[in-house]
Amino acid sequence: MSSVKQDKKGLESDHQGDRRFATTLARGLSVLRAFRASDDGLGNQEIAERTGLPKSTVSRLTFTLQALGYLTHEGRRDRYRLGPSLLALGNVATASMSFVEVGSPIMQNLANETGTLVVLAVRDERKLLLVKTWRPRGVSSIWLETGHRIPVKGSSSGHALLAALSDSEFEEVAAYLEGENGLTIDMARTLRNEAYADLVSVGHVIAQPEIRFAATVNAVAVPFRSYELTEPVIFTCGALPKDLTDARMQEEVGPKLRAAVRELERATGQSPVLAQRG
Predict the structure, then answer these.
(1) What is the pTM of this model?
(2) CA terminus-to-terminus distance, the chain
(3) Tens digits of per-residue pLDDT, 120-143?
(4) CATH code at position 64
(5) What's the number of domains the chain is made of?
(6) Spatial distance between the Cα atoms of 219 and 191, rounded to a whole number of angstroms
């Protein structure tokens, strides 16, 4: 996957002048977020390119993060990798979200039954971050790894997120996303209204072909809202267009995904997203 420079606007500009905002902490976290699962270690120069931070700043941050166990470069010729402290923190975070454990067998069964890759996506700054994947057993599927980021505009997952937000949440998120991948507030409002209508009528969201961000992936999405989180998360089924046609998304996979999310809602005692949105 290509290295994409992070948007520093999301880290500092939006909080400029706010004395509560810890810029050094934000920069340190941006260093950690620069890593991808496919990386075979990153050097300071590569991290600087991905974050937009000066290399001298990155050097201080990586030294500190290594000292704390969040990065390691033992035997890596000064190429850093994520460290054990971060692994422990991630495990604690996953354990605190009980719906992930409860939902895993449900989503694995869905992946096996539909032959699609099932992913769990959350909003991360101005994109959606894939935090969990379930691959169909015995079936070749698209390769999207944990840690992959996809845009809000043009993705079924992103449109489902917009639809699941409350009015006040939407206004805040839309203003934050403005300008990302050409997204305007009016466009975000249109995408939200269309996706909401789809959720009401058929229970799932599919981005229109003319706006899809990637021609190599078709996807159908359903939002889920846990009381443990402040924003909705998105469950999505995806595959190559030849394996997951628009007709199949509408008639088969979309309804099965919605049924799986409803099963998870019942198992965790969560209300449906549209009921929570009000």
Answers:
(1) 0.80
(2) 39
(3) 999 988 899 998 999 999 876 667
(4) 1.10.10.10
(5) 2
(6) 16
